[in-house]
Recover the amino acids of this structure.
């Protein structure tokens, strides 16, 4: 009997292993339980006719087979002519014979999905100018079925609003991931190029399903070794995997590489031998990777080498690399995340101060990569003043998908709302309506090189991103990079339907949880515009007391400026005057205590503890209420999740349930620590209606996390 049982268990093992561990991301393709709906879909999909042979077309066939056999339990018969589902590029004879009219805005990567009637027969057509466009169209088509939409009257044309939609991996060659909370690097450098892990393919599929078309394999704190032949072979192997999915590979270039691997005495960008070295290096890279995308560079920031080491400007540094890449159509993404503590005035002003004088000095194939806010991926920041201000230099966005400052991988925090808040903000730099998104997509600037980067949260964890809900942030980044007009709710709904369930009640509950989660996190971490009060170095948990470090601008006290009078950084004219870096419309709003949105209050103002806020509460009271509200909102998420127990598979339900319990502990830890710490300045009691913190401030100060994940080894 026991033998018999073990045999059964053994036979069931593959199914058990394929359980809901999150590996399949949003491409789960589970059977649609509603047979009536399945039959409706089948009616439209009698046959499948894909014209031509190529690696990308094979991927399309395979994905459709996988998707349709999963969702419908059926694969349409292959056909060659105009019948059923037809997939072919616009210039193919088949599509030509259909006279399909497309909007002139159809991009090289865009696609059309349409039903038409031809010679009395109903057809479903996916067409595009390129095969990659067909691949994107195929994923969109599958998404329609995954989210249970009708195939009866489809007329979709979609093109990306941003040209380069790129993930930035902060992956080190030793396999660790800086600010990675989902295990180790996906890139198994040691086994490459010989061993191609299936995960590389699934990674490419997932990205292509969103339209992500580029990836930077290595950390911005770069290691020059990746530019040596031994590593370029490995890079080439990855590029070969990604190519048919439309994904280009980029690398980070360490500015001192000419010294470190080129044995030159200098990396001075104006030296002829340095220029030549970069030219030769780039020529060599293109031998390995003929469609290499280019370089991402972090220079003169946080101790990284750069042109300023030689008294040269960022433009002089970037242009040397740009000149080397130009013959191959490669580009340079030069980061504006620059600061050093020799400029003690106000760190948030430095990028603008350094880059504005260089406007117009960069080559055409340089794009300046700017973080969403002027500081550093804080839970909430106002938008970066460089957006719209640099008028003659293309700018791109850098978002952080990995939740370094937003609960890492223990917290459910949906970042689409953060991304969207920034994208929708009006810069006023080209008049009303010149939102950050319109600056980025070139519609107000007329720039043709456009890009959006996301510092990714992907690692070797079975579920890719550590937290089952962190996948939603990868998903949301990709969707917004393609179409920044989507709303966070729309994206959340799509993701939920594909990842968890199409049951309406479940979709609504999860979408609401996602939608509220960012504000919740901001409430219990950094309400009212507070920033940079997290743990030293690992950035895990609260530590508002940090001071007296070797760099003032890495401490917490530098930013919150709590004293007996009040709290917050005065960035108005009477303070650091950082507001003058914004358009006049924003200067008026930010400088006015009456007009400033409360979410940015302490970012721009030092506010007295007893000053009244809009709701009549004093700053001290409101601060306490926000911290307590944040923690209570996490408790509410826990309760909401419990209600979904029967609606979600047990495995993922348990996983999220445990993480939400951790998140609640962390939220109360943030709350208690911050109110106790700020109370030492306000000298006022915590409002009586709120429960007293369980532990003393000294207890919270004593907590240490020597092996917290994602830390920079050298820090
Ligand atoms: C900071 C991270 C650090 C990165 C840096 C960057 O803590 O690990 O190297 O950003 O973007 O937020 O360069």
């Amino acid at each position: 009997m026991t033998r018999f049982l073990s045999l059964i268990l053994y036979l069931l093992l593959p199914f058990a292993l394929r359980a809901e561990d999150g590996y399949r991301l949003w491409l789960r393709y589970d059977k649609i339980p509603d047979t009536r709906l399945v039959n409706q879909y089948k009616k439209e999909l009698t046959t499948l006719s894909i014209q031509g042979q190529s690696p990308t077309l094979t991927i399309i066939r395979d994905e459709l087979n996988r998707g349709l056999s999963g969702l419908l339990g059926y694969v349409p018969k292959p056909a060659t002519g105009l019948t059923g589902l037809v997939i072919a590029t616009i210039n193919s004879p088949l599509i030509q014979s259909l006279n399909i009219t497309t909007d002139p805005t159809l991009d090289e990567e865009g696609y059309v999905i349409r039903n038409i009637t031809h010679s009395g027969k109903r057809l479903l057509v996916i067409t595009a100018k390129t095969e990659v466009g067909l691949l994107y169209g195929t994923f969109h088509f599958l998404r329609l079925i995954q989210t249970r939409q009708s195939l009866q009257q489809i007329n979709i044309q979609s093109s990306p609003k941003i040209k380069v939609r790129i993930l930035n991996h902060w992956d080190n060659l030793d396999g660790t991931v800086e600010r990675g909370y989902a295990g180790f690097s996906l890139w198994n450098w040691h086994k490459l190029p010989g061993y191609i892990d299936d995960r590389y393919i699934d990674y490419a599929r997932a990205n292509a399903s969103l339209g992500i078309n580029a990836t930077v394999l290595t950390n911005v704190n770069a290691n020059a070794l990746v530019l040596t032949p031994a590593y370029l072979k490995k890079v080439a192997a990855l590029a070969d995997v990604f190519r048919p999915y439309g994904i280009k590979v980029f690398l980070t270039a360490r500015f001192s590489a000419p010294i470190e691997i080129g044995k030159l005495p200098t990396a001075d960008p104006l030296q002829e031998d340095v220029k030549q070295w970069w030219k030769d290096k780039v020529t060599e890279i293109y031998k390995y990777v003929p469609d290499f995308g280019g370089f991402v560079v972090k220079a003169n920031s946080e101790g990284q080498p750069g042109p300023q080491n030689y008294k040269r400007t960022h433009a002089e540094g970037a242009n040397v690399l740009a000149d080397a890449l130009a013959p191959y159509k490669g580009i340079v993404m030069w980061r504006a995340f620059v600061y050093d503590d020799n400029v003690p005035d106000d760190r948030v002003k430095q990028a603008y101060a350094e880059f504005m004088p260089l406007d117009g000095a960069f080559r055409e194939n340089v794009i300046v990569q700017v973080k969403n806010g002027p500081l550093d991926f804080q839970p909430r920041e106002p938008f970066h003043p460089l957006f719209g201000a640099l008028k003659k230099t293309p700018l791109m966005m850098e978002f952080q998908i990995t939740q370094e400052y937003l609960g890492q991988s223990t917290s459910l925090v949906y970042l689409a709302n953060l991304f969207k808040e920034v994208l929708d903000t009006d810069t006023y730099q080209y008049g009303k309506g010149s939102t950050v998104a319109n600056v980025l997509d070139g519609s107000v600037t007329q720039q043709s090189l456009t890009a959006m980067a996301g510092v990714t949260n992907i690692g070797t964890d079975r579920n890719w991103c550590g937290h089952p809900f962190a996948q939603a942030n990868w998903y949301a980044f990709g969707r917004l990079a393609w179409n920044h007009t989507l709303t966070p709710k729309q994206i959340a709904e799509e993701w939920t339907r594909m990842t968890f369930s199409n049951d309406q009640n479940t979709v609504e509950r999860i979408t609401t949880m996602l939608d509220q989660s960012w504000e919740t996190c901001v409430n219990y971490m950094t309400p009212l515009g507070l920033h940079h009060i997290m743990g030293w170095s690992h950035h895990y948990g609260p530590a508002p007391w940090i001071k007296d470090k070797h760099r003032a601008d890495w401490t917490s006290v530098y930013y919150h400026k709590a004293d007996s009078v009040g709290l917050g950084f005065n960035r108005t004219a009477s303070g650091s005057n950082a507001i003058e870096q914004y358009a006049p419309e924003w200067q008026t709003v930010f400088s006015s205590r009456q007009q400033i949105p409360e979410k940015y209050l302490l970012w721009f103002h030092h506010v007295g503890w007893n000053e009244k806020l809009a709701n009549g509460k004093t700053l001290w009271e409101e601060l306490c209420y926000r911290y307590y509200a944040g923690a209570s909102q996490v408790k509410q998420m826990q309760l909401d999740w419990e209600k979904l127990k029967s609606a979600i598979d047990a495995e993922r339900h348990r996983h999220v349930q445990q993480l939400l319990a951790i998140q609640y502990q962390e939220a109360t830890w943030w709350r208690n620590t911050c109110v106790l710490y700020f109370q030492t300045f306000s000298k006022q009691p915590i409002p009586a209606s709120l429960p007293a913190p369980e532990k003393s401030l000294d207890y919270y100060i004593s907590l240490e996390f020597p092996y917290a994940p994602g830390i920079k080894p050298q820090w």
Notes: Residues 178-179, 220-221, 298, 302, 337, 376-377, 404, 712 surround beta-D-glucopyranuronic acid (CB under 6 Å).
